[in-house]
Amino acid sequence: FALLDLIEANPKSSLQNIILGCVLDLSENSKCLHFIMTWQGQKQQQLTHLLCELCRDEEREIHVSRTEKGVIHDHSKPLMGVLQQSVQITPLARFELSRSVLDLIDNMRSKIYGFFCKLGFSELPGLHEEDSVTLCIIENFLDFKMGEMWQEIVTELDMEGVKLVAPDGEAVDTILRATEERGLAVAATQNYILEQYNKQDLQFEKAFYDD
Prior knowledge:
Mean pLDDT: 85
Organism: Rotaria magnacalcarata
Radius of gyration: 20 Å
Number of helices: 10
Order of helices and strands: HHHHHHHHHH
InterPro entries: CFA69, CFA69_ARM_dom
Helix content: 55-70%
Pfam families: CFA69_ARM_rpt
Structural class: mainly alpha
Low-confidence stretches: none
Protein name: Cilia- and flagella-associated protein 69 ARM repeats domain-containing protein
Domain Cilia- and flagella-associated protein 69 ARM repeats: 1-153
Number of domains: 1
Distance between the termini: 43 Å
């Protein structure tokens, strides 16, 4: 609990990333998950809400394209921030890391995804409306990141003048198209969630005035 308290108490601190990694390692023990899920922060928030809030903070920090409600705006680059986009893709040396891989190291989103892989993505306690929207992105984090990496691979091959054989070219096109289609599908799901919350609010309001 003390580690989670530290994460909550140190917003936008490099400590958050380190401590989150420690807690994620501890959660490899299945018995630990029960205790983690019973944690409550200073504002009675639960871990699920804290993780979603951390994800939103990270995305605001790196200027990921989102709508006012947190919905994916750029379907072809659903995870990419302004800085990552500004780094020019160049042919890399054998052991040099690409900008997509460096992004995994630089922020907490991969660790947050790791947590939810253990906790699950449905029927989670403590989620707010904005958390449900954010969770859609977290759930698809790995697929989106793989799409980024394939985009980099294709760009590097083009720069080096490598022409793919027809079957490989078709496979790559399918992967890139699937990534963008997934971005569109996730955005549609997010808008549906917002619509359901809005309907629920209207029903509560109507019931209040009817009483």
